[in-house]
Amino acid sequence: MDFLNFLEFKITDILDIILVAILLYYIYKLVRGSVAINIFIGIVIVWGFWKLTELLGMEMISSLVGAFMQVGLIALIIVFQQEIRKFLLMIGSTNFANKRNFIKHFKFLKQDGVTVSMDVDAIISACKKMSSTKTGALIVLERNNSLDYIKSSGDKMHIEVNKPILESIFYKNSPLHDGAAVIENNYVVATRVILPVSNERNIPLRFGLRHRAAVGISEKTDALALVVSEETGNISYIKSGRFIDFGSMDELSSIIKDDLID
Ligand SMILES: Nc1ncnc2c1ncn2[C@@H]1O[C@H](COP(=O)(O)OP(=O)(O)OP(=O)(O)O)[C@@H](O)[C@H]1O
Known about the structure:
Elements: H1 11-31, H2 36-55, H3 59-70, H4 72-79, H5 81-92, H6 99-104, H7 120-132, E1 137-141, H8 148-151, E2 155-160, H9 163-170, E3 180-184, E4 187-193, H10 209-220, E5 224-228, E6 235-239, E7 242-244, H11 249-261
Parallel strand pairs: 1-3
Antiparallel strand pairs: 1-5, 2-4, 3-4, 5-6, 6-7
Helix pairs in contact: 2-3, 7-9, 7-11
The structure holds adenosine-5'-triphosphate.
């Protein structure tokens, strides 16, 4: 039956749908919480209106909107310049050759061989100590996305992670305490790093720039962030732009270990 032809699915159609879904997901991830989401919705509305006028045969208005949409691609590149840049950076900085990342794609396989190389317990106990002394801290744990372009805003270094090192970095009178410290594998690889600040409007007002920066980096990359508030001493754990709840420090430690394997 001819009218059922559209039901004939080829393997390339499925691949096509998956690719479009992935693309839309990444676009959503990039524009979420920023003003770009409103522009994106605006474009979808204009495009819908254009298609409707075409369907109804309203030639004058549809050719007018059509002409606008044709130059739209250039306009889109200009308007979404920042987002396109971040998107390309996100793709370009994903380390597909990373062993952990590679195994992750085969989750159904046994993961016995995968261990967390980061000393999460040392990081957590440093946070606990800094929390008790109300020492502000912002720690970024690198995963699969490379943070090289962000690290360059701070001071590069290579120090093995341990509790006293982290405490001394964020010690109030330390010249390194400002900004974020980035940890890769089990090394502090950069300090005084300036992170992209999130524009998300749903972040409660009590959280300032330190927390917004933690949300920002976890939105734009797959990095994890830990914040110790200077004001309250509270510890926050942020992943994929969201504050993750935890009941105790032991629970936090095991959540982070799981996330580092994930
Ligand atoms: N974009 C950024 N990247 C990295 N660190 C930042 C950034 N913006 C602010 N910070 C750090 O946060 C500190 C200021 O924190 P602020 O008081 O605004 O945040 P907060 O979320 O209220 O944290 P706290 O609860 O500790 O006060 C700065 O001194 C700086 O060290």
